[in-house]
Amino acid sequence: MTLAPLIAVGVAAAVVDLDERRLPNPLTGTFALGTALAAIEAGAGPARSAAGIAALVLAVAVVVKAVHGEVLGWGDIKLLPSLAALLAVLDPPLTLVGLVGATALLCVTLALFTAAGQGRGETVPYGPALVVGAFAAPLVT
């Protein structure tokens, strides 16, 4: 399985989020489609694992959004399950590594934006942290 197209779309999403403070549907949708195709290519077992993990991550993200609406944007919620599913296709334990890494990078991002006087009441771009955390997971294990 070649990851180059997914990496390209993920990087594009991160760059757009950093610049525009939003994750556009064409990028999150393309990433989701690419992840689904990678899961299908990997076979029935990995595809099932990826789908289950994506559903769980989506459910948690929606609950976080419902409880603390300002914490996550809808673009983040659309991107998270695809990133988790891709890691599950590669190796299910990578999902936890990627999500922990992304969460740590989210905290760093928020701290940096707050230190720069931009944290409260402004949209903080989480896409770069999510993408880097997920893509770095295979490199740190």
Describe this structure in words.
The chain is an all-alpha fold and 141 residues long. Helices cover 81% and strands 0% of the residues. It has helices at residues 4-20, 25-42, 44-67, 74-90, 92-115, 127-140. α1 runs antiparallel to α6. The mean pLDDT is 92.
Would you kindly provide a brief summary of this structure?
With 141 residues, this protein is an all-alpha fold. Helices cover 81% and strands 0% of the residues. The longest helix is centred in the middle third of the chain and has 24 residues, at 44-67.
Keywords:
single chain, 141 residues, mainly alpha, 6 helices, 81% helix, globular
Alpha-beta content class = mainly alpha
Percent of residues in helices: over 70%
Which term fits the overall shape? Answer: globular
Q: Give the total of beta strands.
A: 0
End-to-end distance: 19 Å
User: Cα-atom Rg, whole angstroms?
Assistant: 14 Å
Please trace the helix and strand order, writing H or E for each element.
Answer: HHHHHH
Q: What does the main sheet amount to?
A: none
Percent in strands: under 5%
Overall mean pLDDT stands at: 92
Low-confidence stretches: none
- Total number of helical segments? 6
